[in-house]
Amino acid sequence: MSWKGRLNAALSRASGGYELRRPPSAPGSRRRRRARGGDRLLKAPVFVLCSVRSGSTLLRVLLDSHSQVCAPHELHLRDMSVRVRGRYAKRSLTEAGLEPRLLEYLLWDRVLHRELQASGKSVLVNKTPSDVLISGRILECWPDARFIFLLRHPLAIARSRQRARPQDSAERNLAMVLRYAQAVEEARRQLPGLTVRYEDLAADPAAETRRACAFLGLKWEAQMLDYGRFDHGRFRPGLGDWSDNIRSGKVRSPSPPPPPEAVPPELRPIAAAWGYIPLDVQQTLLP
Length: 287
Description:
Strand order of the largest sheet: 2-3-1-4-5
CATH architecture of one domain: 3-Layer(aba) Sandwich
Strand content: 5-15%
Largest sheet: 5 strands, parallel
Number of strands: 5
Structural class: alpha/beta
CATH class of one domain: Alpha Beta
Helix content: 40-55%
CATH topology of one domain: Rossmann fold
Radius of gyration: 20 Å
Oligomer: single chain
């Protein structure tokens, strides 16, 4: 059985029959709507595609500490929409080639460009976990978009999310982790980009931020490691991580990885796909 089949089987068991399928907005599944010249203010924006509770806020503040990188708090593009009221307005905008989807793209572009302009920097890095669920639309909006894929051990993600949302059942928690994890893996298989592991970032932030800067075409700056010196906005729910760890201004060493046998069966396929279960152990754990 393929990794996707194993992942969907695990998700089906965890969520009572729910399966993940490629959304209509996946890259290449829709005819791209072309923007007119001047429709996009942002040039080559960067998007961090990741699961929830994957350490993306740490990556954000490290990058945001660079003199040329603007990495704002979570902006939730997926939940921004445009509604046109009245048939005359609809007719007028259609005549201008601005259907609601394209209007939303103008809004997205303006919101992100506004953040970049206010920062006085040159590179926009957007990190919101739900972006991975609309990676196709992001590429449709910005054909020159660049991507950083952030991975973390799936069991560590599940444990972190359960602590953050104790009201969720264990089954729902696993289903949500699997939903985001599969979307990340789909994006990695379809889009070019840089893969960063949270564990490597926390263990050696200098090496990983050097890799990120090389990918962005920027010179590395040592000040990135001292992110507590800079203003990254408020740390609160809805904007990113709000834990004491991120507020400390210091990069904390990662916890030791859980042993392969501790990984729930539902998470083993994606853990194996991401290299967190060694090859010699996979055959004994995977169905």
